[in-house]
Amino acid sequence: MAEEVILRFDKVTFEYVERRPVLDEVCFSVRKGAKVTLMGQNGAGKSTIFKLIKGELKPTKGNVFITSNASIATALQMVEKQDLNLTLEEYFGKAFLEVPGNIKSQISKVMNAVNLTVPLNRKVGDLSGGQQARILLAYALIQNPDILLLDEPTNNLDKEGIDHLIQFLVMYDKTVMVISHDADFLNCFTEGVVYLDVFTRKIETYVGDYYSVVEEIQARIEREIKKNAQLEKEIQDNKDKVNFFANKGGKMRKLASKLKEEIEDMEENKVDVRREDRTIREFEIPAQEIVGNIVTIKSVKIIKNHEPVTKEVDIVLRQRDRLIISGPNGIGKSTLLRSLVSNINDGAVILKDTVVGYYSQDFATLDYEQTVFDSLKSVLAEGVDVQEMRSVAAGFLITGELMGHKISHLSEGQKGLLSFARLVLMKPGLLVLDEPTNHINFRHIPIIAKAINNFDGAIILISHMPDFVKEIEFNSELDLGKF
């Protein structure tokens, strides 16, 4: 008996109003119970495919078929701002048209599935980024969907959280589609890849684990480049012959005409070689000159058994000092940074007049109602003009057309790059970076790591990405998990 197909795209074309097509006659199918990665360059339309599956968007042409009215739920990348003030019980209640009587036992079941224990009267906004990442997955699971869509599910998760998620997905018997830049995570459970090309707007499907598929795509690119080089040589040879025969007259002219037709055929046979994402330009973050103790931390609050406990420490950061803060999800790392930056922590102070470049994992420093242009302009350091601002933005792939867009219309990746552009323009004396690689395309990460490592001011960093952390030289660590 053939395996049942649960999801099928049949010649789906989609374009946003007054914009170029995102998808062009896309065809693919996903069988029931499959674990599939949705892969493609930035802006290729991965999030658009999720929205088409959920019915939030309708195809311009073609059809999306969901077998037997299968139910669908998505684990979003971030908690929506209007939900941050809800208690956990209120938040999970939103997943139902009518809240069931056994809501607490259902919540307990999905919280157990994501390996999280938090009181149900706790507000969603009071949870750490890693805890919120688990809540987002639990919110999707409580809907008991036939198709589970995961958008960057490892963002903010510590190693224990990622390991638990992998274990869960391997055992999960429903259909799963994942968008992620975490190659090791994907390789642990993916059975196939749906590859969306931003340039051709077509889709290719591959069977196999993630690394095998990536190798296959790379080999295919090399074959296409080789084939095109061969065709280019033959085309040039024929063009030379056409020029020679065209001047000879008689039968030679007919031969020239025949060769012209062959050239046209060969031009048509050239392959559209996949081009990968453009990467951001190398950049530097200019530093404010500061003499003295930029940051002094005498005590920190950590969360033990859901209650804050104060612990004494002795940390002083001067220029070129770098501190990494580590510890499990929910211990209080992001809370420490927020309280430091907001100047509401009696045990930690920043030197007066220090310009602080704060990268918040939830983009709390961005005003979503501002345009990109106004957001950049609002942080310009003295002596930086609008022309230079536009040049810096272009280096982060923030082009002229994006400048007039509201920040709320940007993708999460674009918000991340905008945040880095703002850091460059403000010339900070202190960088406070909370998970700065979340939502960032893996191609950009080595460039960002290099810029941070070359920064001449002080740095405080939280990151769960070991490959990123090892590229930056730290001279001190504060492990909140050791208290």
Uncertain regions: pLDDT < 50 for 5+ in a row?
none
- From the N-terminal CA to the C-terminal CA, the straight-line distance is 58 Å
Helix content class: 25-40%
Number of DSSP-assigned strands: 17
Q: Shape from CA axes?
A: globular
As an assembly, this protein is: single chain
Number of H- or I-type helical stretches: 15
Structural overview:
- This protein is of the alpha/beta class and 483 residues long.
- The mean pLDDT is 87.
- It has helices at residues 46-54, 88-93, 103-113, 129-141, 159-171, 183-187, 210-246, 251-269, 333-341, 372-377, 386-395, 400-403, 412-426, 445-453, 466-469, and strands at residues 5-15, 21-31, 35-40, 61-66, 72-75, 147-151, 175-179, 192-196, 203-207, 295-304, 307-317, 322-326, 348-350, 356-359, 430-434, 458-462, 476-479.
- The protein is built from 15 helices and 17 strands.
- It is globular, with a radius of gyration of 26 Å.
- A six-stranded mixed β-sheet has the order 5-6-7-3-8-9. A five-stranded parallel β-sheet has the order 14-15-16-12-17. Strands 2-1-4 form a three-stranded antiparallel β-sheet, covered by helices on one side.
- Strand 15 (430-434), helix 14 and strand 16 form a beta-alpha-beta unit.
- The N and C termini lie far apart (58 Å).
